[in-house]
From TrEMBL:
InterPro entries: AA/rel_permease1. It is a multi-pass membrane protein. GO terms for cellular component: membrane. GO terms for molecular function: transmembrane transporter activity. Its main location: membrane. This is Choline transporter. It comes from the Eukaryota. Keywords: Membrane, Transmembrane, Transmembrane helix, Transport. It is found in: Membrane. The chain crosses the membrane at residues 44-70, 76-95, 123-146, 166-186, 198-217, 237-258, 279-302, 337-364, 385-405, 411-434, 455-475.
Amino acid sequence: MREEVRNRIEEPGTSDDETVVVIQDGVALNAAGHRDQLSRQYGLLGLASMALTVDNAWVALGSSISVSILNGGPPGIIYGLLVAVFYYSLIGLSLSELASSVPTAGGVYHWATIAGGPRWGRILGFFTGWINFYGWIFALASLMQISSNVAVSMYAVYHLDTYVSQPYHVFIGYLLILWGSAFFIVFANKYAPHTQHVGTFFVIVGGIVTIIILATMPKRHATNHFVWSSFNENNATGWSGGVAFLLGVLNGAFTIGTPDSVTHMAEEMGHPRKDLPKAIMLQITLGFVYAFCFAVALSYAITDITALQGGFNTFPLTNIYVQATAGDNGVRNPGAAFGLLFIMLICTLTCCVGLTLTVSRTYWALARDNAVPLSALFGRVNERLSCPVWSTLFVCVLATGIGAIPLGSSTAFLAIAGSFVVLTTISYAIPFAANMLSGRKYFPKGPFHLGRAGYAVNGLAVLFIVLFDVLFCFLKRL
């Protein structure tokens, strides 16, 4: 019976030895100790595609610059990104090691359970799981808000003198995109990997096109001083220069801060131990390259920074696109700005599908381990659709409620984005710290292992997480 089960699971394109931990009563169990219920339809290409589209680094940077545009202007954006990439690389290395050892859809909360040992594991795992889940819910809400803002801006660029965007306009778009993503995942889940391939194409090719246009189309560019050295003149936060700069790192953290997204797809992969570390670090590396080039090109395209402060719908990127594509004597070129926004819209829509998948799988993994109310319902998988339908719908209902918050607050996006970064990084720090305190003895070595450098990498990751999470809580005073 054991050989029959193993042969069935190891059909080409489905699995291999690394996904099967033990055979119990004739049933093959995965690394989480559960029977496989989801199709293992993701290879390295599909996983890397999802990582890049969920991260959407250059899009995330451009659409969230309202966080840092007053924290030193372009220098704050560029140098803040460099700092964020440095400490997220430490996080990525630490996550890669754990994912290579125990690849499960639960991700950090399973790892916290293991690292905490018999005494503290269940408690740490419970809180880590919920913290991580709510972090990703805020990420989903941020993304839907960005996507809707882009769609509204595509209309606004043709009516800048007459159209006044209202919060409910964005909320309507938010609902359409959110529930459209949900129904696609429920009824067309087998096509989800293809959407990520499309998203990867637009993230990579669309990013190159956007960077080239921003670099070449403006009739005049900002000065080198403005882009690289104008931090103090553009610090409008009221904080001293050093503190303002560190607060502005939130923009970079939001840009690159999705390293654990693909870990929640571990049970839908054929070779998770080998492919997860590659996808995590590929996302951080390529995300940084694109985000940095985009940030530099975008900064040189700014000709009037005062127009970005409180622009229509507090979405300053649209104003930058309008400035960059303007013709001689400042004559607007709405068609060009519309085209740049259209590229961004496609990138965000494919990202919406990938991120909804990530969050729904996170909640499903919690329910499967009886960590949520009505676990029997939310832990159920429709094997015909290969989708945890009830978990997907619940996630979207919760995201709908969060999406309504900006209807009553113009600064809600800042709070939502900050909550995503703070909560997800806390959920990373818990298993990292527990792993160090337990002597790093509970995790078997996987294909990717940090070896003697593990303590240093894990320790620095936790140190930076604590430092920046405390600082980001002060953003409400901006």
